[in-house]
Design goal:
The structure is a homodimer. With about 290 residues, chain A is an alpha/beta fold. Chain A is about 40% helix and about 15% strand. Chain A folds into 2 domains: about 150 residues, 3-Layer(aba) Sandwich (Isopropylmalate Dehydrogenase); about 130 residues, Isopropylmalate Dehydrogenase (3-Layer(aba) Sandwich), CATH 3.40.718. In chain A, a hairpin with a 2-residue loop joins strand 4 and strand 5.
């Protein structure tokens, strides 16, 4: 049976409606899934500007999407790019939509965004925090949580026993303690626990060579310790055409990694490639479930 | 007139002699430069093992190379991969050969290795130090020194006014202070001073998008704040086939970025690509001078 995929066009002032429409115009889309449009008539807002009216429409539509997931009217939700400023103007108190989803779904455990680029999945232990706070924020428990969450999410996409690489923090992964001790004190114990739990986890590995190995296909997933450790690699690997998956959420929710691209909104030139990828991953996860 | 390039075969127990021999076997090499071999008959040492005898031969040959540079018998020195353990066993007290060169040449200013991958040059403000010490090690002066040094080195390679990008430290380059203040307090003032001195410097720029721009050709050089910030990107861009240039040294010295590769030493399968690149860059720098 074909999965039922809810599609929300995203913030109507950006390129979301365009990439969603391009996806829906493809025969392959309808061959693959039963499409359930999410959201009512979009409000008339100026293109290319963050607007509270568009933000309110976005939040209302996301709530409708979550309700559809909860009532099993859809198996997965795919949304085109949102605009954070617009959602804030409309009163979103959360740091991002992911935490809003968690609240709506009554999810109290850890949640994190998972980035997918081609066949490579990554999640990070710390994210939007100052660089100098990263080392003190790392704990065995957080590394285990994020790694476990990444492992489960990749498994949901049809890879039952993914190979997970856990990055070190220091240059050369600390070089046996010469260049920092977080690998010895925190990361290696976390990897050991993961392996004891049955995960196919390796690490701590030097971050610079790790991504060369991951690109070659040695790993399905990479757990990074901080924002740029993963993002420098993922952006070079083409993450602007990649996908973000909601991790730690008891539902399948995906979105393109790129933003609303106000500079080209309404011009008809937006590339639907990442939206198509977000849809493909949602379908695979819905079918595998 | 053709430049005179000194070639040292590197540690004789690794792949150095092989990649040097392959380079010297190419007609193009001799068309481009007058070759001056550096080093006497190599000692007989077992292949694929760090040896104090090989280390002693390495240090003696490097001293001969530096002497040839000082007496202007050669315009540049290119050496095949060395083995740090062997040099340490032979009594090298310095952290690496670069600091040995500085001492031999009576150089007291800052020196740093510069990495070249294709047409992109990078240098880092901190290197082999624990991650948690990085933020406290950054100063306006160090960022200026390294940036100036990178600028001069690229200029020596025939690009008179290189475009230099200076990376931020924090995610999104601090996002206006929300995610860390080193950009505001240290990096931006350094970039301002560099611009006041006439450098074409931009920054602080978010590290993750910066390398995508650099790969596209927007910059000739990138100054990174810490080891992995540059190395994650450079390794993905193919730095294993790249070149290291001695920065801050009043002489032209280049070497392949890869190591002695003991696992394939003596098998005849070593790729001379990076050695050829090291030679090409040395020739360009010697001719431009």
């Amino acid at each position: 049976m074909k999965p039922r995929i809810g599609i929300f066009e995203g913030d109507p002032t950006g390129i979301g409606p365009e990439v969603a429409a391009k996806l829906l115009a493809e025969a392959e889309t309808h061959a693959r899934a039963e499409i359930v449009p999410i959201g009512d008539a979009a409000p008339a807002c100026p293109i290319g500007q963050a607007s509270p009216i568009a933000g309110e429409y976005t939040l209302r539509s996301l709530r409708a999407g979550i309700a559809a997931l909860q009532s099993h009217r859809i198996d997965a939700l795919v949304y085109a790019p949102l605009n954070k400023k617009a959602m804030k103007l409309a009163g979103l108190p959360h740091s991002d939509e992911l935490h809003y989803f968690a609240e709506l779904l009554g999810q109290t455990g850890p949640v994190t965004e998972i980035n997918v680029c081609g066949r490579l999945w990554t999640a990070r232990v710390t994210s939007h925090v100052p660089f100098r706070e990263v080392a003190d924020l790392l704990t065995v428990e957080k590394i285990r949580d994020v790694s476990g969450l990444l492992n489960r999410t990749i498994a949901k996409a049809g890879i039952p026993a993914p190979r997970i690489a856990v990055a070190g923090l220091n240059p050369h992964a600390g070089e046996g303690g010469l260049l920092g001790t977080e690998e010895i004190d925190i990361i290696a114990p976390a990897v050991e626990q993961l392996r004891a739990e049955g995960l196919d986890a390796a690490g701590p590995l030097p971050a610079d060579t790790l991504f060369v190995a991951a690109r070659r296909g040695d790993f399905h997933g990479v757990v990074t310790m901080y924002h740029d450790q993963g993002q420098i690699a993922m952006k070079l690997l083409g993450f602007e055409r990649g996908v973000t998956v909601a991790g730690g959420i008891p539902a399948i929710i995906t979105t393109p990694a790129h933003g609303t691209a106000f500079d080209i909104a309404g011009k008809g030139v937006a590339d639907p490639g990442a939206m198509r990828e977000a849809f493909r991953i949602a379908c695979e996860m819905a079918v595998s479930r």
